[in-house]
């Protein structure tokens, strides 16, 4: 493989590299002496895939199949996919799964999308529950409980110290293929709304407009006593001025909510500000902590989305948290189909219409919009 071909190169630019190999393989299998990739091949020609490609059955040979097979080849050799240590172990993508997902998307016009932490692992943010790579599998640390945060000053200091160190890395994360794919679906008016359980703002960074952050956002800090709020980037500057002795090194691993592991010695002496408006000590990210409740008006908004949608697509959620699982139950109660794409089991596996296990960076490029 030429050194110039990198993981993030545009797939169109490397079609030509793989073209000869694909065509040669096709000629050997089918005896077709095609004149180039742009040739109009007979629509009546069919082929049964061999073990060189995914075995799916008989397909009409056309340009799109060439494109899909090249993408499968690239996935196999890890040419263009983003490699992340936070993506759970998974099997190679099945072309049949890609076709099933494509049909689901094309058959519905008002899709409600629910995304979880699994959609952001390819951006470098771990999830909570994935085997071997999730937060619970790799660390004894657990998320801060809401009641602990509001009742214990030491917990607040520890939380903000860890969040302060992790913020530069967490806030620099970029959308991956899954986020931009949903933006394209939104542009085609296929999506009613995106409901995300994540607080990482990656859907907004990808350009999606209709996003409901079910569990809030890490990008806003507010006071629990008064109505004061501040942008998280600005709050970082406030913390920096209060803690000039704290050195932020390059952090390569952050938790799903943006904090990092620190020792008691590293946390010692860290200062957090009071609310500049009411002088209170309860400045907190605008996220729904574990043990807290989602605002009732937000729950009602979700119910309204379920009422107007014609289907639900779940991406990257184990649905272990009831707030997400409830959306699936309500959708099924309304006799609307539900498709789930997630690596590993989910709480709703026994009641959904479609369950696909695949890495988003591998399966979504095969979807023809």
TrEMBL record:
Annotated PROSITE patterns: SIRTUIN
GO CC annotation: mitochondrial matrix
Protein name as annotated: Sirtuin family,Sirtuin family, catalytic core domain,DHS-like NAD/FAD-binding domain
Gene3D superfamilies associated with the record: SIR2/SIRT2 'Small Domain, TPP-binding domain
GO molecular function, a single term: NAD+ binding
Binding site for Zn(2+): 223, 226, 275, 278
Superkingdom, natural source: Eukaryota
Domain spans labelled Deacetylase sirtuin-type: 88-369
Transmembrane segments: none
Active site: 215
Keywords: Metal-binding, NAD, Transferase, Zinc
Species this chain originates from: Cinara cedri
